[in-house]
Design a protein that fits this description.
Layout lengths: L5 E8 L5 E6 L2 H10 L11 E9 L2 H13 L1 H19 L16 H27 L2 E2 L6 E2 L1
Antiparallel strand pairs: 1-2, 1-3, 4-5
Amino acid sequence: MLSKSAYVYLIRSQKTQRFYLGWAIDLQRRLEEHNAGVTQSTRAGRPWEYLFFETYANSEFAKQRERALKHHPRQYAQFKNRALNVFWTAKSGPNRMEGIIPPPGSHDDQAVGHVLRSRRQQRIQSSTRAIVALRPRLRRGQNQVVG
């Protein structure tokens, strides 16, 4: 018996710009279910659009990959970044920087800007914490460094 190929997919709400990760055997049917409100966790974000999917030999491999992505935030972030890069590459024309600049005037500008701002803020916060941790503490009213 031949097993059907299965997919791990990432969709994005056109209404709220939220992401949802899942697996399916029939991608078209699954997206229709999300947009029809069959899935409770995606009902509020309708309509949804596909950003990216990976193909696997059978549903067991797809379930394992989905579980790994949902339980490991770093892997999920890498998956999402790859999905966004592929998405922008597909939407961009020959005169655009592929995978980086969204089409002007699209609602996606705000979502990408938010992601970039939050990453930048995380880098700034972590570097600020490192600087504060390395800075010697002074006793109040004295010029002596506390060890």
